[in-house]
Amino acid sequence: MNPALHISYDDQIMNFAARNGRIDPSTGAHNLTTGDLRMLSVWLSTAIEEAWNRPRGKDWVWPFLVNSATLTVTSGIIALADISYGPWISLWSADPRTANSNAYRVPVRVIDASGIYPQCDLGSVFGLYVARVPEFSSTQWSGATSYVTGDVVYDSTTGQCWRAKTDVTGGTGILLSNATYWEEQLIPRQFGDYLTWSCLSMARDAAGQEQTAERLANSGLEALEREFIAAFRDSPTGSGKPFYVGGLWR
Fold it and tell me: Which residue, 131, 146, 249, 250, is most buried by CB atoms nearer than 10 A?
């Protein structure tokens, strides 16, 4: 996913605050409490997972979520830490998209909790895969704190959240910009309106305002449907199927 086509976690918080009447008129800043922000991070994580996975089961996926990379095969396995688990996986001997490519499809023998087992003797394969669903947190990052794989923190400098790809020992000088240890939790711009309406719906539902919550949830789904149609139209051949298989986008 192109990092230029995303909005920050801070932007999403401000969108929610503005539509929820939680902007301080004198400063222009939101007045959400620590508890509000913690709950909002949970709602955003829940909503974006729903949007991310919504097309699955229909032989379709959001084209802008498809990643490509050369994946290392170690002792016959690709570690799940190196690629997000999901049904939308296509492995190749080389990049099949290049001109005059002679790449061939590499079958997947099995997938389990350890990783993906390609049916080949290659030391690396080229993969097309769906990126991991982002997670969000209002817990601010500190260079003095130790983190374990999967921990998510918030960077008040960039307004973005980051997920630990591996354990990080505090006080070692490892910054969030170190791609070996951290991955940015990107929010696609296409999901912005849907996420705001969905979080507002969850806020109203938590306050016992079920009818209002339902209306807001429907507004969110309408926003997502508009993006769904646009992404389907703009995908390769308009098929909504951004995987290159056997010389065809399928």
Answer: 131
